[in-house]
Design goal:
By secondary structure, the protein is an alpha/beta fold. Helices cover 32% and strands 24% of the residues. Strands 3-18-14-15-16-17 form a 6-stranded parallel beta sheet, sandwiched between helices. The protein has a 6-stranded mixed beta sheet with strand order 6-5-4-9-12-13, with helices on both faces. The longest helix is centred in the middle third of the chain and has 16 residues, at 251-266.
């Protein structure tokens, strides 16, 4: 059996012996909307539980448009023309674009052009969140659970904040999109650290597809409400990165509708666990580094038997990434078995423990192999097994688990 995995900007072919029980699990394919630009325009004109966007802000007022960084595949070349058309009565110097980097590195000038287009980057002012700069942040309140919320102070000066992005299952927030554009997108490092704390990650509802009763999600939406007034423009995408649904309007209502659609189309129930799961990280841009690829590993772990093997194919053109807190933590222990104890002991001293948390959880259950463009030494430094030949590895794993081995392939990963 030949299967194609999402890998970088291409499809990677892998072969699995025909005699092995293999199941391919993919999102239910939904065709892209016939006229995606028109669909966005109509959603902005008839939003959920909110006046049309063109009526939500008046001439003389200022608008902040919050957009995703390079790690997300949001098609701004489709979203921005109707969005800016709806804001046509607002002067350009009253509109500012804010890059919701969260704790990620800032986008390069080239990446900003890739995300927004050269025309938009030249036409509008762009600000990027620096979560580590306390001078950028302002205290806006405390959530019900007692979390202090610090947000980028400049976005609070605007009359309306438009949150953009796309909705898909998320490995600990439940779903992406919605209030995540504000927190972690435009929040301080300390605010993100409190939200992504190990005690929250330990909660049974901090998992794929769960927002109700998820302590992380509850705080995310409370934090976003502290930055009201807001307008949401979220979409769902198919594997071809085409828009399949547009969800605009009041934050909670529009996002809830988008999550219901994403759950129906992107999540698949399975009856049995597998010995081997072969997965991707959804290809470009999400498979840019090992850090992001933990998401694909996490999806695989949910359907894997104890002692099973995960085979991850991710291009990782951005490395681990180098110099990140994630990389420093990985290099602080000699063996993967020590990772969880290390981050629990040193959490208050570390900036970013959440990705390591999930990697450690996964590797306590499974062997993890990585096929990428990285050199073997770099992969090994992340406590993963480097792979040079996927087909050879699959054959060896089939021999290891025997003729009754069960394999699942997730071509789209998370």
């Amino acid at each position: 059996m030949q299967i194609k995995l999402a890998y970088g900007k291409e499809r990677l072919k892998v072969w699995i012996p025909d005699y092995v029980h293999t199941e391919v699990v993919e999102p239910r394919y939904v065709k892209g909307m016939t006229d995606q630009l028109l669909a966005v325009k109509e959603a902005l004109t008839n939003p959920f539980h909110h006046p049309p966007l063109s009526e939500s802000v008046h001439k003389g007022q200022r608008v902040a448009i919050i957009f995703s960084d390079i790690t997300r595949a949001t098609p701004y070349h489709i979203l921005l023309p109707p969005l800016l058309q709806a804001l046509g009565h607002i002067p350009d110097d009253h509109i500012t674009f804010f890059c919701a980097t969260g704790t990620h590195r800032p986008a390069t000038p080239e990446e900003l052009i890739t995300i927004l287009s050269k025309e938009v980057t030249e036409r509008f002012r762009i600000v990027q969140n620096n979560a580590s700069d306390p001078g950028q942040q302002k205290d806006v309140g405390t959530t019900t659970s007692g979390k202090r919320i610090m947000l980028h102070k400049e976005i609070l000066e605007y009359d309306l904040r438009i949150l953009t992005g796309f909705i898909e299952p998320h490995f600990f927030a439940g779903f992406s999109g919605g209030g995540k554009a504000i927190m972690p997108g435009m929040a301080s490092l300390e605010t993100v650290r409190q939200n992504h704390a190990i005690r929250n990650l330990d909660h049974p509802n901090a998992r794929w597809g769960h927002t109700s009763g998820n302590p992380l999600w509850d705080d995310i939406m409370e934090a976003a409400a502290m930055a009201a007034p807001l307008f949401l423009l979220n979409i769902t995408l198919n594997r071809d990165k085409e828009i399949t649904g547009v969800f605009a309007g009041e934050l909670r209502e529009a996002h809830a509708r988008g999550c219901a659609f994403a759950k129906e189309t992107a999540m698949v129930p399975l009856k049995e666990a597998f010995d081997i799961v072969i997965t991707s990280n959804a290809g470009y841009p999400l498979d840019l580094n090992i850090y992001q690829s933990v998401k694909g590993m996490s999806a695989a772990e949910r359907i894997l038997k104890e002692g099973g093997s995960i085979v991850m194919a991710a291009e990782c053109w951005d490395g681990i990434p180098s110099g990140s807190d994630y990389e420093n933590i990985l290099k602080s222990v000699d063996k993967v078995e020590s990772l969880m104890d290390y981050i629990r002991e040193h959490e208050t001293e570390l900036q970013d423990t959440w990705q390591v948390y999930f990697q450690a959880m996964i590797q306590m259950k499974a062997d993890v192999y990585l096929y990428s463009k990285l050199d073997p030494t770099t992969v090994q430094s992340a406590h993963l097994e480097p792979v040079s030949n996927l087909n050879s590895l699959i054959s060896k794993l089939v021999d290891k688990y025997g003729p009754d081995a069960r394999i699942c392939v997730l071509p789209e990963g998370p």
